[in-house]
Design brief:
The chain has 265 residues and is an alpha/beta fold. The chain has two domains: 161 residues, 3-Layer(aba) Sandwich (Rossmann fold); 74 residues, no CATH class. The strands form two sheets. A six-stranded mixed sheet has the order 6-7-8-3-9-10, with helices on both faces. Helix 6 packs parallel to helix 7. The longest helix is centred in the C-terminal third of the chain and has 18 residues. The chain is globular and about 50 Å long.
Length: 265
């Protein structure tokens, strides 16, 4: 397996409770979670708001450090490595954030943003290299001189994808990357992501509340609730015969219009 979480738990300060004896009480948002993702596999992480799916994704690439358990990347335990020790692996694991408006530096041009990511890892950050990355995500070279606020939401999300794939990673966590886009733009961005995944052979953890998207993009789906995995399996099997009543309720409560089924085919 390329990425593994073994019985990980994660606690965060509980902001709803008062500080006691100089410390704020903790809230457990991941509870003994285990998950494995193979090379080239796309796994959907699905659940209600607050289910822990984004926190799990961030633990998998060690943006969060689990309090208990292990996170392994390509067989190496990275659970408690310091930032300097993780740097050699950062090129191989990337994240595409939900809101590109806040995850892209508004003071830097698009060319500067992409160049910064390449330079950080000692890669060619010249105009030709940046133009090549823009070509891969379907953006014109002219956006190099623009700033994030001068782009549409779909274009900004393509820049977020470009920043991630510029380093040619083995694993990407995509966190609700189409939730703020209209249906047409969603289809374009997801088609791009699927094409890049197939071309590059990378593994993908796709976090979403939209089960119709997960159904068309992911080979396997993981259902989360209250910081735990309550069901997982091949996507088609989970949709056709969910094992838990919560999964059935989740599927039944989200519209799956016929025209959206297979929209990425």
């Amino acid at each position: 397996m390329l990425v593994e979480a073994r019985n990980i738990s994660l606690d965060v300060p509980d902001m709803s409770r008062p500080v006691l004896i100089g410390r704020r009480p903790k809230l457990r948002i991941l509870k003994n979670v285990s998950l494995a993702i193979a090379k080239g596999e796309t796994v959907g992480l699905v659940g209600e708001s607050g289910s822990g799916k984004t926190s799990l994704g961030r633990c998998l690439i060690r943006l969060y450090e689990p309090g208990e358990g292990q996170v392994l990347f390509d067989g190496e335990d990275i659970s408690h490595r310091r930032a300097a020790e993780l740097k050699p692996l950062r090129r191989r694991m990337q994240m595409i954030f939900q809101d590109p408006q806040s995850s892209l530096n508004p003071r830097r041009s698009i060319g500067g943003i992409l160049a910064g990511a390449l330079k950080l890892h000692g890669l060619d950050a010249g105009p030709k290299a940046i133009a090549s990355v823009l070509d891969r995500v379907g953006l014109p070279h002219s956006v190099m001189t623009r700033h994030p606020h001068q782009l549409s939401g779909g274009q900004r999300q393509r820049v977020g994808i470009a920043r991630a794939i510029a380093l040619k990673p083995d694993f990407i966590v995509a966190d609700e990357i189409v939730s703020g886009l209209d249906v047409s733009t969603q289809a374009q961005v997801l088609d791009l992501l699927r094409r890049l995944r197939d071309e590059m052979g990378m593994a993908l953890a796709f976090i979403s509340h939209d089960l119709s998207v997960v159904r068309t993009l992911c080979e396997r789906v993981v259902i989360m609730r209250g910081g735990e995995i309550i069901e997982e399996g091949q996507t088609a099997e989970v949709f056709e015969a969910p094992r838990t009543s919560f999964t059935r309720t989740l599927i039944d409560s989200i519209p799956l219009p016929e025209y959206r089924e297979g929209w990425l085919d």
